[in-house]
Design goal:
Layout (H helix, E strand, L loop, with lengths): L12 E5 L3 H11 L5 E5 L2 H11 L3 E4 L8 H10 L7 E6 L4 H10 L3 E4 L4 H34 L2
Parallel strand pairs: 1-2, 1-3, 3-4, 4-5
Amino acid sequence: MQSPDPNAPTTPRILIADDNAQNVELLEAYLAEGDWDVRTAADGEETLRVVRDWRPDVILLDIMMPKISGFEVCKRLRADPQTRDLAVLMVTGLDQPSDIDKAVEAGAEDFMTKPINKADLLLRVKALLTARANKGQLDRALAYIDAVEKGSS
């Protein structure tokens, strides 16, 4: 049996990517009740850098950010095999159906319009973390089945 990866994070990691300090403070306060490691980024470039260096499990991504928009950040994350499976929850003041369509096209799993409801945010973050864990279990199970099938042929 393989031992667990000592470098694997035991506490889920959540990145808050928003250029508005008040929004970041509010999201941090909402997430303070959970057992999560939380970091922040204030623009699109910093978001990509933190993702690369820290590997969060969930990103709460604002759309309207300096340097690189949230839409573009999400597209870049999805284009990179190293980051394509990160859970992205767009958190934005934009509320038009076309904005939601653009978020989905960029690769976001979910979309929340500000002002954010605390209970809804926590529910969605937990759901994204659960889906991410289940996907990992499913991938492991499928790899195991594939290996067994290849071994018996």
